[in-house]
Amino acid sequence: MKKYIVLFIIALGFIACKNSADNKTTTESPEATQPPVSTTSASGLLTGCYEYISDKNTIRFEITGVDNGVVGTLIYDFFEKDKNTGTFSGSVNGDHLFGTYTFRSEGMESSREVAFLINKNQLIEGYGELNADGTAFVDKSKIAYNSNMPLTRGDCD
Fold this sequence. Notes:
Elements: H1 2-27, H2 30-33, E1 48-54, E2 57-65, E3 70-77, E4 84-93, E5 96-105, E6 108-119, E7 122-127, E8 144-145, E9 151-154
Antiparallel strand pairs: 1-2, 1-9, 2-3, 3-4, 4-5, 5-6, 6-7, 7-8, 7-9
């Protein structure tokens, strides 16, 4: 009789261990084990973070969508200047990204047109003559793209 009790207890132990292992595999979600998916536009522009950091200056552009136009958040934080934080909404035209940057600075909301050249894993901001309001480029074909402050795709902290 003692043999049967001991065998019964051992069998219960094995069953309990097996159930515990089964529970561990079912509680892990597939999202937790798979890396995040990046979305790519037709131009090769990826969602994610593009950033320039040098000394005390930072430009950070986090692109959150590229399917129905390009959207994201854009931050300019230059030393001894007011930090601008806002949203970007635009579109890709060939290897160029054009859009409207709506931001808050000194307690006021403003918007202006911005342009970037898409160059592999970098965005290079373009500069050109603006209209009288300072909100849009006068001639997009005359925008100069300066690679002194390239935004490189990586991880935002």
